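Section 3.1: Structural characterization of target chains.
Under the original work plan, the team committed to producing a structural model for every single-chain target entering the pipeline before any wet-lab resources were allocated. The record below documents one such target. The sequence was received from the expression subgroup and is listed exactly as submitted; it comprises 504 residues.
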Amino acid sequence: MPPRPKPGSKQDRDAVRSALLATNAPTSAIAAEMRVRFGVRPREAWRHAHGWTTQEAADRFNDLAGDAGPSADASLLGKWEKWPAPSGRRITPRVLIVLADLYGATVNDLLDLDDRQSLTESDLRILRHQAEPTPAGAVTIRQAVPSASPEETTPPLTGAELVQAAAQESAQWAQWAEVTNCGPVALEQFTADTQYLAAAYLMADDPLRVFQQTKLQLNRVWDLLYGHQRPHQRRELFTTAGYLFAMLAWMTSDLGHRAQAETHARAALLCADNADDPALHAWVCSTRSKLAFWDGQFRQAIQHAQHGASYQAPGTVAVLLHCQLADAWAEAGARAQALIAIGQAEDAAALDHASALHDQVGGLFSCQTGRHANYSAAVHLRAGSATTALTHADRGLAALQQQRVRAYGTEAQLHITRAGAHLLAREPEGVLDAIAPVLALPTEHRTAPVRRRLRDLARDTAASPMGDSAAGLRLQDAVETAVREAARALSPGIATSAWINDHD
């Protein structure tokens, strides 16, 4: 005698399904038996009633939804089945309608009390329209969806019946089209929340907390995009999602995961295409330039920055793109091109100031005087101009003191650039004075780029005429201690992934 299948296993479910099919039980009865016998939720029960795995159901779902509809993989479909449990993903009316067609069920068959209590009133209103009975004499012309159980076929409609059916379908579509799952207040709140996160990231004591908040915010926006909105609302949602994806790309790169950061950046680019927003396109290019720069791909960084500048977007993104272009040229050893690009950044900043244009999001997606001056000071220092580098660094520090948002990483880098300029000018005491504010920072603010710049300064000091002097040795010891303490203070996950909090 073969062993009895394990209760609740696929073999057990298939055995129950086969037994019910042998009695000519309809799919609805098989789904009901799955719910009672195995204690599963409605959508999972209907999938088991067809005998499909989550991957098989997802493939059929995508075929049925088509290119213009929602798409799913096995993981997402499984999360739809679990919702509203914490491990689930919110299901939208549009997804429910496709699933109902897929399983040969009604939308009501796929919902239980927990689902209904978790759906919004607008979602329930859409589903009520969908579930309304067809008036007598009207026959739906929606294409039937094949299912595992045989269905009765009806002859094709002709004449007046066809005209009546088409009109009924148009009326049902109009009812669906006039309902949206978001309004102007919600869109305004999403924009405000995104602005807050972009600013909070610059001065975060706990960057991972901001990362988590950004991810949750993106999930909320993306859940809405699975539903229905008017065209201008959908474009606004795609714009918000694009900035949030770009933030995740920036943060993920800062956490040391460059490949995953590129995935977020590609998603941001897709959002920019759907939103048809030049400013978002330019900021996504800036983000991709940043990713390439920190990966040592300076030619790619240059190409992304040049492409971003071609959008001629409003706000300060043009300033940052030219700064990034200058930074990449300088690192590639092309000092002449770097100085030309930093001059173009000055021109863009003057134009932006004259036109009084403002950035839509700000914070991370802004290049105000302090951030701009940080790039200018670094480029001029690499070009060997200590006096000009000091001038720009002082200008940047003064500007940061006036900002409401304090960017700790940018501020620290400006101090280090000042120290480098004094080193180039052979002023040992100036080096020590300039670096003192950085060494006094709390350890959590001595982030990876700050530590990297400190190490570079110590290396340059050792190779300079002051390398063996008392001041030079004191500086090298202080830097080594500061770097070691900061690395030890950070959590292992951040420390080993070279967290970069400066954002430049």
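Residues 10-131 form one domain.
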